[in-house]
Amino acid sequence: MGVLVVVGSQWGDEGKGKIVDLLAKDADMVVRYQGGSNAGHTVVKGGQKYVFKLIPSGVLYRGTACVIGNGVVIDPADLIAEMDGLKAKGVRADRHLYISQAAHVIMPYHKAIEKASETHKGGRRIGTTGRGIGPAYVDKMARIGIRMGDLLDPPYFRQQLEDNVAETNALLKTLYGAPGFEAEKIFQEYLRYAERLKDMIVDTGLLVHHAVAKGKMVVLEGAQGTHLDVDHGTYPYVTSSSAAAGGACTGTGLGPTCVDAVLGIAKAYTTRVGSGPFPTELTDNEGALLQRRGNEFGAVTGRERRCGWYDAVLVRYAVRVNGLTSLCITKLDVLDGLGEIGLCTGYKFKGKKLAEIPSDVAMLGVCEPVYETWPGWTKSTTAVKAYRDLPREARRYLARLEELAKCPIDIISTGAKREETVVLRNPLLRAKRKR
Ligand code: GDP
Ligand code: IMO
Ligand code: MG
Question: Taking CB atoms and a 6 Å cutoff, what residues make up the pocket around ligand 1?
Fold first, then answer.
């Protein structure tokens, strides 16, 4: 057996989808543990590009069970659209997809509340993806949420929905001056979704437990990233779920002792979408260059991703709060041809050096990055598969990232395609050997 958590180590979009797909070759099961269709996980296989929002990134392997865990919030319309999109490309997700009965459902009013609230915040808005994620988790915590299993119990579903719509309409009208919703219309629409999904809705906690008990190989796929985690991220500029590795247990129903290894994914530079502090952000030509070369536009919203140098303080923190056992550095090829590469090793706050990320977001917002400058390389790293074929300067840069993180690098990604990867050690197979 082997249970590996794959987690973003920065602000999301690190290339988790590509790496989960790669590792899924040896996995019996891939489980998404939090987030929803705010995620966009890209996999490029055989010239075809797939962007997974809710469906785990192991779905391209027919023999791999794909599970949407209880920690995920599901917009059924998005899920069905994703399944249909895959079917059109010849992938039958429904044949090996399992949906937690305890995963919460995103309703149209969640999106409306989010939109109104973001508008209301003005300059203090979070810059959310508009998928209703935050309000759906609010209902979950307020214990009024509707779960996937509830859709299969129409009388209960109708009652809960009517109560929620009454409350939501009052909020939308009085606070935001926005139009309300009709419970009956939503009820009928969601019953149709339930009819389509009902055979896939199961007790996934038990399913995952049985897989682990039988010694299967399991990948727990995180969405977003450590610094977007609701507890450990740059609050309030975060998402509303536990994106860090701790969420892999609460979001699947596995106990912490089941987890064998935790792989952190980090880009060779840094990006962020939406608002919030970003010490190494480059607002000049260099940032624009990284954005263009890295094609840094949101996989879900198409928004421009803010770009900057690699921040070792962020990744060191990710090593700590996720208990990372190894790292995967992605998009090394994007740095090809740069004369010099900036590498942030610490911050300066009011003239004082900081080695750790401050928990106060306002303080982080005024921290100055302390840089080392590393020589770039002229030889292309694109599609390189063997470590020895990387230019010496690239190897030195990677060695420095490893040293600063105090965590070994297992994988280096040199392109978007599955095969454009240097695998020094396979973290899933290593997780297996541990037991
Ligand atoms: P995720 O949300 O963490 O799965 O990442 P996204 O899919 O949102 O963003 C990563 C983007 O970079 C996608 O367009 C990937 O196809 C692409 N990508 C992943 N790894 C590499 C790499 O090593 N090099 C390059 N050039 N692109 C990559
Ligand atoms: P993947 O899984 C990057 C960001 C949004 C916003 C904040 C809150 O593809 O890495 P939300 O809609 O979640 O309430 O928005 O979080 N965000 C992401 N940024 N990658 C993601 O997912 C993200 N999911 C949410 O831009 O700043
Ligand atoms: Mg993404």
Answer: 8, 12-18, 40-42, 44, 295, 299, 330-331, 333-334, 413-416
